[in-house]
Amino acid sequence: MPYQKDFLLKAYRSMKTIREFEERCVKEFEGGNIPGFVHVSNGQEAIAVAACIDLSDKDIIGSTHRGHGHCIAKGCDIGAMMKEIMGRVTGLCKGKGGSMHIADIDKGMLGANAIVGGGPPLVNGAALAAKTLGTKNIALSFNGDGSANQGTVMEAMNMAVVLQLPHVFVYENNGYAEGTAANYGLGCDSLTDRNAGFGMPAECIDGLDFFVTYEALKVATQRARDGGGPSAIEAMCVRFDGHFIGDPQLYRGTNEIKDARKTQDCLKIFRQRVVAEGWLTAATMNAIDKEIMVEIEKAVADALTAPHPDPATDLMSDVYCSY
User: Fold this and answer.
1) Which of 165, 171, 199, 285 has the fewest other C-beta atoms within 10 Å?
2) What is the dihedral sign for C-alpha 169, 174, 177, 183?
3) Handedness of CA 5, 69, 75, 123 (dihedral sign)
4) Three-state secondary structure of the chain
5) Distance, CA of 9 to CA of 317 (rounded, Å)
6) pLDDT value at position 11?
């Protein structure tokens, strides 16, 4: 067997946790328990887990506004995450970050980012620090296909090549930049070819296949650790939900989502592969499913009873940082 059983169990548990966490966030948002906007990553779980499963807490990731899955894949506690998303003071960021600004520096999660294309320049800083200090740690940024057209991202890619930074750029191409088709907003035939034009290794892969994605990211992250500079991975995937919860999705084709859930679900693809190969049994994964549902229920129950920040004491705290 090319993969250790513990590795496969960890990968499945992480992907399934993301799926169930996101599904519950949809339910809680629709129930009025989550303020602001919520952008879920259902359908993209394989990319987040494949990218993060081998990273340490010292390796840094930067996320997008669709960042819950990246947090979970990086090892953030789902209980503290749910509290944060519900705006509770015991959340990861004391209830002040919410869904779009959730972060956990102790886990190397630099933060979700509501600014499209805002992550790569920050991740460049983490990569520069790692190179300067000689730590052999790497930095990885998640980007959507829409953010690829932002000047901040292109400048970050150019700088990463010039300075040969240990930065892996991961593009989750779910086909839509909000409601604009990726092939409409891209001024060339291939995002991967454009990425290569910056002078870094670039590859386009099937982001629905965990194993294909993992192998590609393993090469890219090792290259970065070994001083080989940045890489760009474009992972093709689907987004089962709208840009945000409540998005009417008028830009979608008839039965597009329904068909995708049937044939383009990375979790189903993973399960089919590992069972067919005899690596894991369906019963083992079903047992994990039940355990995760218990964990999600507890996270929600604890978050619903957790206190909100107190305006009298918390409003002006953590606004400035003194060095």
Assistant:
1) 199
2) positive
3) positive
4) CCCCHHHHHHHHHHHHHHHHHHHHHHHHHHCCCCCCCCCCCCCCHHHHHHHHCCCCCCCEEECCCCCHHHHHHCCCCHHHHHHHHCCCCCCCCCCCCCHHHCCEHHHCECCCCCCCCCHHHHHHHHHHHHHHHCCCCCEEEEEECCHHHCHHHHHHHHHHHHCCCCEEEEEEECCEECCEEHHHHCCCCCHHHHHHCCCCCEEEEECCCHHHHHHHHHHHHHHHHCCCCCEEEEEECCCCCCCCCCCCCCCCCCCHHHHHHHHCCHHHHHHHHHHHHCCCCHHHHHHHHHHHHHHHHHHHHHHHHCCCCCHHHHCCCCCCCCC
5) 41
6) 98
Look up the domain containing 99 and give its range: 5-314
CATH code assigned at 139: 3.40.50.970
Residue 323 domain-assigned?
no
Using one digit for the tens of pLDDT, what is the confidence trace for 36-61? 999 999 999 999 999 999 999 999 99
Rounded to whole angstroms, the Cα distance separating 210 from 277 reads: 14
Query: In this predicted model, what pLDDT tens digit does every residue of 249-282 receive, in sequence order?
Result: 999 999 999 999 999 999 999 999 999 999 999 9
Q: How many CB atoms lie within 10 A of CB 124?
A: 23
Q: State residue 9's pLDDT score.
A: 98
Say which residues have a Cβ less than 8 Å from residue 273's Cβ, sequence separation at least 6: 211, 279
CA 76 vs CA 3, 73, 119, 258, 317: distances in Å: 24, 7, 18, 31, 23
- What distance in Å separates the CA atoms of residue 43 and residue 184, rounded to the nearest whole number? 22
Tokens of 235: 């992972």
- Does the pTM exceed 0.90? yes
Residue 222 tokens read as 């090792």
Whether the Cβ atoms of residue 249 and residue 255 lie closer than 8 Å to each other? no
Q: Is residue 284 in some structural domain?
A: yes
